[in-house]
Amino acid sequence: MNKNRPITYQQWLRVVIKKMPHLSKPQAVVLGMWSFAIAMTHHCGLSTAVVFLGEILEQPENTIRERLRQWYNSKVDKNGRKRREIQVEQSFVPLLRWILSWWSSEEKSLVLAADASTLGQRFTLLVISVVYRGCGIPVAWKIVRANEKGSWKPYWLKLLDSLQEGVPSDWLVIVTTDRGLYADWFYEAIEQLGWHPFMRINHQGYYQSSPEQQFVPLSELITQVGQSWSGKVTCFKTNSLSCTLLAQWDSGYADPWLIVTDLSPQQAQICWYGMRGWIECLFKDIKRGGFGWHHTKMNDPRRAERLWLAIAVATLFLVSIGGEAEANLPASSLPPLDEMSSSAQTKENPSMPEKPILLLKTNPTRCLSCFRRGFLIILASAIKGMPLPTGRFIPDFSPAPG
Question: Which residues does the annotated region (Disordered) include (predicted)?
Answer without folding.
Answer: 332-355
